[in-house]
Amino acid sequence: MKNYFSSKVLPTPIETAEMLAKDFIRFTEEMKRFRENLYIALSGGSTPNLLFDILAEEYPNAINWERLHFFWVDERCVPHSHIESNYGTAIQRCFSKVKIPKENLHPIMGGENTLEEVTRYTGEILSVVPYSAGYPAFDLILLGMGDDGHTASIFPGQEHLFETNSIVAIAENPISGQKRITLTGKVLNNSAEIVFMVTGNKKRNILYQIITKDPLAINYPASKIAPIKGNLSWYVDLEATGNLSTLVL
Fold first, then answer.
1. Which of 53, 125, 182, 218 has the most other CB atoms within 10 Å of its CB?
2. What is the rounded CA–CA span in Å between residue 124 and residue 131?
3. In sequence order, what are the beta bridge partners of 39?
């Protein structure tokens, strides 16, 4: 299938987010030819905040927001009003500033009973997102990568979350012990487009190992992102590649 994104190395985090924002807008426009609505899952963490800011401040009217349904890749088990809420951050930095119908936002209720929320969110995904190859098939999933190589809320040592048949699962940050709710690996790898945005020199060694398929990369959940039928792209800055700016992504 056509790759609507392509891996890129940009000089700075801001330029990386700017390029991803432009490609995201082009993607939503070109996909009009094929379907009325698009289903997108967003990651949390600090990296996508730049993308949220750019979309809201520079391109609020460049997107037909009514066509887009946003879900969340993962969420910390905190209320949306909490500073660590991925959904709360996305609302503050982007969705409160653009004209998107409230019903197009599908947050994980991190502050609710965790087991009940896994069941509820699974049902919401199944009721909205198209189904293919046995799992929900998002049009686009935006991912980040932690300094330890985790992605979504799948941390090193939690590889079983790539093997489970569940759509949504409970995860735990091994350092803080904080509970999280996350999409599982089979759902992530069922997306038509998966885009990583990675910035900063703290992620350089892990990124290099993943891109070069070093045997040590097996220790990092981000290395297990491999779309079944879709496309995988990397948007990274020079600090994340170091002197390896010519690294083939």
1. 182
2. 13
3. 69
Parallel, antiparallel or unpaired: strands 193-198 and 231-237? parallel
Backbone dihedral region for residue 177 (phi beyond 0: left; psi -120 to 50: alpha; all else: beta): left
- What domains are there in the chain, each with its CATH number? 8-241 (3.40.50.1360)
Tokens 């993962």: give the residue: 74
Question: Tokens in use for 121?
Answer: 């969110």
Give the torsion sign (CA, 12, 13, 17, 20). positive
Handedness of CA 29, 32, 36, 42 (dihedral sign): negative
The stretches of the chain forming alpha helices (DSSP H) are: 13-30, 47-58, 86-93, 114-128, 185-188, 204-211, 238-241
Q: Can you give the pLDDT at residue 239?
A: 93
Alpha helices in 129-167 (DSSP H): none
| Alpha carbon distance 46, 144 (integer Å) | 9
For the chain, first and last CA: distance in Å? 18
Q: What is the pLDDT of residue 246?
A: 52
pLDDT along the chain (249 residues), means of 10: 86 96 96 94 87 96 97 97 96 97 97 96 98 96 96 96 98 95 98 96 94 93 96 95 63
For residue 39, give both structure tokens.
């289903």
Cβ(73)–Cβ(42) below 8 Å? yes
E runs forming strands in the chain: 8-10, 38-42, 68-72, 74-76, 105-106, 131-132, 135-136, 140-143, 168-172, 179-183, 193-198, 231-237
